[in-house]
Description:
- With 173 residues, the protein is mostly helical.
- Helices cover 75% and strands 0% of the residues.
- The protein has ten helices and no strands.
- The protein has helices at residues 5-24, 28-31, 41-46, 59-74, 77-91, 95-110, 113-128, 131-143, 146-158, 161-171.
- The termini are far apart.
Amino acid sequence: MIKNKKNxxxxxxxxxxxxxxxxxWPCPASENGVAWNDLAPGEQTILERFSDxxxxxxxxxxxxxxKGARRWQAMTPDQREQARKRLSQWKNLSPEQKERIxxxxxxxxxxxxxDRARLRSARKRFQELPPEKRQNLRRRWQRLSPERREAIRExxxxxxxxxxxxxxxxxxx
Length: 173
């Protein structure tokens, strides 16, 4: 304990600087990845199948797996079941289908935020349609020739937001 009041301020400042430096400078542990023993017990349970090769994973992989385990723990049972179904569907895809999905995802991630927001909004509107209407729209789209689909896409890209809104209103009548 510091008895001299004059020494309190410098010690407090040094302590504050050290605390702040720890939050600004990268932690060496992150450069070395995540030690297996540093994982929470729940994370270890989820990642158990990787335990024997954990130290051979790159630090980025270890951090991604830890992040995934945390997300999994935060999911509701319904969300976990949906995730299991999606994983099962993914496993059943052909390599070509997986590659097409990966490319589409990369394309999506490269879009400006406003375009991604617009796509999410359109998907949400589609999901809110009654199932029979969604199925009908899918069938109509699939029956179109690739050339016709591309022409529709191009026309849509050329429309202003107001023209798109009016078009949607007409379609909903």
